[in-house]
Amino acid sequence: MSSSRSTEGDQNHTSVAMFVLLGLSREKAVQLIFFPIFLGVYLVTLIWNLGLIILIRMDSHLHTPMYFFLSFLSIIDICYSSSTNPRMLSDFLKEEKMISFIACATQYFVASWMCLTECCLLAAMAYDRYVAIGRPLQYSAIMAPGLCQKMVTGAYVSGFLSSLAETIPCFHLYYCGPNIIPNFFCDITQIISLSCSNPFISHMILFLVAFLIGFGSFLVILLSYGFIVAAILKIYSLKGSAKAFNTCASHLVVVAIFYGTGLSVYMHPSSSHSEKQDKVLSVFYVILIPMLNPVIYSLRNKETKEALKRVIKRATHLLQ
Predict the structure, then answer these.
(1) Structural domain includes residue 5
(2) DSSP state letters, 92-129
(3) Structural domain of 79
(4) Please, is 21 exposed, middle or buried when counting C-beta atoms within 10 Å of its C-beta (0-12, 13-18, 19+)?
(5) What are phi and psi of 9, to 5 degrees?
(6) What is the secondary structure of 216-255 as a DSSP string?
(7) Transmembrane region positions (predicted)?
(8) How many Cβ atoms are within 10 Å of 278's Cβ, its own excluded?
(9) Which of 40, 197, 226, 283 has the greatest CB tally within 10 Å of its CB?
């Protein structure tokens, strides 16, 4: 049974005890093909992000504000990916893809917390790049370790409280009938649509969080890059301009992918995308971005490549 009935007229407790996740495909053969592919993606995500965290901690040349933020971005990517991937992988091997009401709420809370924290952290990283390019002589004084720690703490606390504000009202709605989620994870917009009670307050909270955290962070990023462009235009040397732009190129790519995909997933009319298109975009946003972030920073950054060479050289020397 997927539901347990509450007493008549009592809407303080949900009548739906389980949700059904339809997953990426209903065909067993396709699911068995997907399993090794997404297992590989998840393992690469863990290895890349953990590797980047260890590299930053081990190499003193990377003990700068930018890499301090980047190490916490990798922690976010690990947690974000782990909130959905293990469940999706296990569902590929199951006939019935059931998830309990509490597990669904927990999954969404963690995923939302990490996603909102990433918004704030990307804004902090944009400000860091502005100070590095626009005010290089004051960089060390402005981006002191204390400020960086406060910015990271603020990002995590803001994400936590915002996710809590979204999750509690949504999962306190009355769910009396349909319990099928047409996705591979607990997407709050699809969950709210299953509610038998008025979801107005939940929709308003979602809008406010998206506006304050999502759009607010994006506005900080846009302003920071506006000042960065203004600072670069004042550099008369072409080589100097190229070097200044290169210091924020990786961050710009990550921001473009993160916000571009996020807007495609959540900011479109419900009729403009098919269910399959929504799933493809969700896979990219939820599964692939956490894997791409460390790859983008590693491949586009000479400092990380040089740091890796130093660590390998040091390890080789110790083994000899």
Answers:
(1) no
(2) HT-SS-EEEHHHHHHHHHHHHHHHHHHHHHHHHHHHHH
(3) 18-319
(4) buried
(5) 85, -10
(6) HHHHHHHHHHHHHHHHHHT---HHHHHHHHHHHHHHHHHH
(7) 32-56, 62-80, 101-127, 204-233, 245-268, 280-299
(8) 20
(9) 283
| Token pair in block for residue 246 | 């290169």
Strand partners, 98: 20
Cβ of 304: how many Cβ atoms within 10 Å?
Answer: 22
Question: The domain spanning residue 117 has which CATH number?
Answer: 1.20.1070.10
Residues whose CB falls within 8 Å of the CB of residue 178, separated by 6 or more in sequence, listed in order: 194
Report how far residue 199's alpha carbon sits from residue 173's, in angstroms, rounded to the nearest whole number.
7
Parallel, antiparallel, or unpaired for β 18-21 and 98-100?
antiparallel
Q: Alpha helices, DSSP H only, in the chain?
A: 28-58, 65-92, 101-134, 139-142, 145-170, 188-192, 200-209, 216-233, 238-266, 275-283, 289-299, 302-319
Tokens of 83: 């909130």
- Model confidence pLDDT, tens digit, residues 172-200: 888 887 889 988 999 898 899 898 888 99
Burial class of residue 192 (count of CB atoms within 10 Å of its CB; 0-12, 13-18, 19+): middle
Quick one: how far is CA 41 from the chain centroid?
Answer: 15
Q: Which DSSP state fits 211?
A: I
On whether residue 11 sits in a domain, the answer given is no
Stretch 117-129: mean pLDDT, rounded?
96
Using one digit for the tens of pLDDT, what is the confidence trace for 151-163? 999 999 999 999 9
Closest CA to 300 of 257, 269, 266: 257
In the chain, the number of structural domains is 1
Residue 9 lies in a domain: no
Adjacent-strand bridge partners of 18: 100
Does residue 193 lie within any of the structural domains? yes
